[in-house]
Every structure is written in structure tokens, then in C-alpha cells.
Automatic annotation (TrEMBL):
InterPro entries: PRTase-like, PRTase_dom. The lineage of its organism: Bacteria, Bacillati, Actinomycetota, Actinomycetes, Kineosporiales. This is Phosphoribosyltransferase domain-containing protein. Residues 9-153 form the Phosphoribosyltransferase domain. One of its GO terms (molecular function) is glycosyltransferase activity. Keywords: Glycosyltransferase, Transferase. It comes from the Bacteria. It holds the Pfam family Pribosyltran. PANTHER family: HYPOXANTHINE PHOSPHORIBOSYLTRANSFERASE, HYPOXANTHINE-GUANINE PHOSPHORIBOSYLTRANSFERASE. SUPFAM superfamilies: PRTase-like (SSF53271).
Amino acid sequence: MTSDAPAREVLTWSLFGEAVRDLASAIAAAGHRPEVVLGIARGGLPLAAGLAYALDVKETATINVEFYTGVDTRLPEPVVLPPSVDLTELAGRDVLVVDDVADTGRTLAVVLRMCREVGVRARSVVVYRKPGTRLAPDHAWRETDRWIEFPWSAQGPVPEVERPSA
């Protein structure tokens, strides 16, 4: 029996652990010593946390960007949502901008542009790079043209639980 479902790249928690170590090693080998890890919420947060520990970076920040609204469904442009880090506080610092995937590269491009406009020395890292991305990140663990199933989003939200009445 064949399936009409498109092939997916499945990242397990175990493989994610390997990706974090591999990426941290590649970043260190390249001589990049970030002072701050900036995670792009939501997908970049697990990788940002893992890299902050693996690279022994104590300062972390988050920027909220919405672009995808579903499988292969996007907004016309990435939108920065509140709350967000004040990037001017990072001016003159080496910052590692972290996301889960560089699909079109537009989310990374928006965040990197915002960082550089205020004088942040920013480099980027993702777990996956897609072959058609317009912005190649400085570091990527793997390349794929498949839809990626990440362990933190594979099951979807937990259904609401009915609370007992008081």
C-alpha cells in the first residue's frame, strides 16, 4: 500500500540532542563566541536553549516572529509580535540568532536586518536549511526539501481540559 502523504523529515529528541552538539561544535570551531543567544519564537527556542548551554552563554533573549500559519501556509511577510527584546540593548555585541529552519529565509532576514540596523554583530544558526532559502544561515545542521516534523510541535497543542466547577 502506498501513501499519498508527502515525505517528511522527522527530527526526534535524540537527533535534536545530536544536532545541538554538532552545531555548537561547528560554531566553536569557526571561532564564533556569541555573547548573547537570541531565539526566534517559537520554533527557535528549543535550539536557542540547547546552544546557550552547549556554548556556555548565560545571556539569552527572545524575539517573536510569526510567518507560518500552517503546513506550507504563510503570511505575506514575517511579522514581529510583542513582547520583544529591545535590540538597542544588544548594540555592539556578538549575537547568535537562532531559528528552527531557514525555509524561505525571510524570517531570519527580518531579524538579522533589525539587529544590524542597531549595530548588533549577528550570525545565524538553524537546525535545517531548505535548498531554496534566500538567506543561507551561517550554520545549519542539515539540509532538506521535505516538511519537517519537530519533536516539540509534532503532536500539536494539548486539548483543553474541562475544569471542575467550584
